[in-house]
Every structure is written in structure tokens, then in C-alpha cells.
Amino acid sequence: MTKNMSRYGALLLAVVLLVGLSCNVAAQKKVTIVHWQHHSPARLELVQTFAEEFMKQNPNVKIEIESVPESDYFQKLLPALAAGSGPDTFQIPTGQVPAYAASGVIQQIDPRVATARQIENDFIAPAIKRLKYDGKYYGFPVDTQTIVLFYNPKLFKEAGLDPARPPQTWDELIKYAQAIHKRDVKGVTTQMGVATGGYGPVLVSLMIQNGAPLWDNKTQLPDFNSPQAIEALKFATDMVTTYKVEDPQFGQRYNAFRQDKLGMVFGHPAMIGSFRTTAPNLDFLVAEVPAPKAGGSRSTLLTSWAYVVSSKAESEICSKWVAYLTSADAQKRWTLTTGELPSRRALLDLPEYKSDKLLAPCMESMKKSVPAPWTTRSLDDELVRKAYQMVTLKGESPAAALKWLTQEGIKAEKEQQELAKP
Description:
Layout: H1 3-27, E1 31-38, H2 41-57, E2 61-68, H3 70-83, E3 89-93, H4 97-103, E4 106-107, H5 116-122, H6 125-128, E5 132-133, E6 136-137, E7 140-145, E8 148-151, H7 153-158, H8 170-180, E9 182-183, E10 189-195, H9 200-209, E11 215-216, E12 221-222, H10 227-241, H11 253-258, E13 262-267, H12 271-278, E14 285-287, E15 301-310, H13 315-325, H14 328-338, H15 345-348, H16 351-354, H17 359-367, E16 370-371, H18 382-392, H19 398-419
Parallel strand pairs: 1-2, 1-3, 10-13, 15-16
Antiparallel strand pairs: 3-15, 4-15, 5-6, 7-15, 8-13, 8-14, 9-10, 11-12
Helix pairs in contact: 2-14, 9-10, 9-18, 18-19
């Protein structure tokens, strides 16, 4: 080897070493992920645990979590995003994902982490339907809930009903409620048969079951004026006004259920954890919601949020983080801790869920769930509840109440579509 070649080789080696050192330094450069979500103590503690695990697996990542009360969440999130100072990853209601994606505020899930086909194979269709925009997925589902029927086997037995056979149809629901409902000599309710509480997701679920479209595909705006929606609202309000098996004066429905004073109550599966914590001695069971008619639909409204990645964030690592938050293991722990249901296909048929008399009906309800077509959160409960009260408290007809709901829903939807464009 000549002297010049030796010098050249040494120089080349030095360059290689220098480049390698630079790459190594770059690889170990700290990446900070600022993560926001709405708050509850159980959620915060578990997400912090997930963050610690993720950081151990990814030593170059630092995750900063900010948990904000839901009542203040959007007042803080939207201005921060508009100013470009918002979080890297955060939660938004699933229905708002397309608007955020269209405005460029969030970015698609990095295909290096999960392709569209992988997401569709891993998650049930209702949970991800609103997460897709322009052929790409912009988030992972979290906090997924449906509607189920909770019932009290003790009150069933006292009324001569079989706890092993909850009501299967709307007509049976009324008959069961009439058997359970009790009044004193003055006609005052002492034990209530059934309750919806006028809760929006329950009422919308009844409409979905009954085949109501709820959405005008031409205008891309809400529409509750169908005969099916009117019939469903009439069924719910008749429990109060005609059959008198739900008494709004009897008190808060979940408290009544905890006290063995209510036979059946519609609610989210997350109430399983609430009942176990607040009334540990309460004996209760869970069933899928009764169908309008024998063999009819038992679908209910799917409500959910999504973890998304800000457009300004580092794509791959942030997508990897939100994927970790919704992994199979994370969803199992999330269900155990918060009561929210899993949305991964593989989890819904787990033997441990199928053999659980409380969780099995909830998992079946997930398979049949339907996501809301709107963006505005006011149609999730507030406006629908007001339409219900127009009938039960003011004597309006269900048709008139739903005409009002459609008008107000259109206004709210247009406003929300604008608000979701920070």
C-alpha cells in the first residue's frame, strides 16, 4: 500500500466514524410529545402508566401529559391549535375528525406505523368509520361506548318475571315495566319499572333501531323528520305519558337503580364500574337493548373519541404513541379500569369476555353499533333531551318536537363544522 493510499484510507475511516457518530447523536436526540386529553382520575393514572411504559421502550422520547376537565377542554384546545402552540397528540370526538383533517390541523396516521388496511383489519368498522378522510385514517378510537339495558333480577323475581329472560322487544319492555312498577294508595311511585332518563344516546339508539336515517345525504345535515324517528320518540315518551312506567319525579334514575327501586335502566356499559364502586352489594344484570319487534335490530349509537396527531408533530413517533394507547393490551386495561369498551375485533370475542355475564352483552352491542353521522356534540344529548322534554313536559307531539330538533340540529351542525376548523 502506498503512502498516499494509506492517508486516503485513514481519511475515509475518519469520515465514516464522524458520520456514524453524528447519526448516533441524532438517533438519541430527545423527542418531546405533548399529549392532551379530557380528565378523569382513572384515565389520567392509566395514561401516565402507558407513557412510562412507552418511554422505557423508546428512551429518546419524553411524553408530557396534560389532563383537562372536559368542561374546559375545547375552550383550551381550539385557541391553542389556532395559535400553533397546541399539543402534539390529543383527543377529539370521533365525529369531528373529518373536519379537523380537512382543515389541515391533524395529520394522517403514519403508514409506517399502521396502514389503512391494517387499521380496517384490526378495528370494527363502526369505531373507525368517522376516522377516515380522503382515503386515509386520521386517528385511533378510544372511549367507545354503546347502549345496553341494565336490570335488577331481584325485582324481576318479585314481579314474577324470569331474570334469565330479559325483554326482547319494545312491547315486552313495557309489559315487564308494568309488572315491576309500584305506586302507593295516593298514586305516588314507590318503585319504577324502566327509565331512559330522556338521555340523548338512548333516544337516538331507539331511532337507529327503528330504521330512522337521521341524516340528509343531499344536504349533509341532520334530519329527524322520518316516521321511524317519530315512532321511536313516541315509544320513549309514552313510557312517561301513557304507560306511566317511568316517573321523572321519582328521582335520578341511576340512584334509584342503585337502591333497588328501579327495575330496568338504559345506559352506557361504563356504568358497570360505577355500580360496582358506588353500590357494591347491588345485584344487577346486563342485556342488549330490546328490538322494536321480534327479530328486529338491536343496534345502538356508538359514541367515541379519537386520539389524533397534530399536523406540526413528528409523524412516525407520535403515530406510534397513539397506536400504543389503543393497542390490544391497552384496550383490555382501559376496559378494566374505565369501563370503556374495546374496539379491536380480536378482543370482542375473547373467552374471558364471552363468559362474563355483564360484559358479554356489551361486546355484542359493539358489533352492532352505529356511529352518529353528525359533528356537533349538542346532538349527542342536549338538543335530543330538549325535544324529549317538549313532549313529556310541555305536551308537544313527537313530530313537532323532532321538527324543532331538526332545525336546531342543522344550526348546531353548521356552527360546529366551522368551529372544528381552528
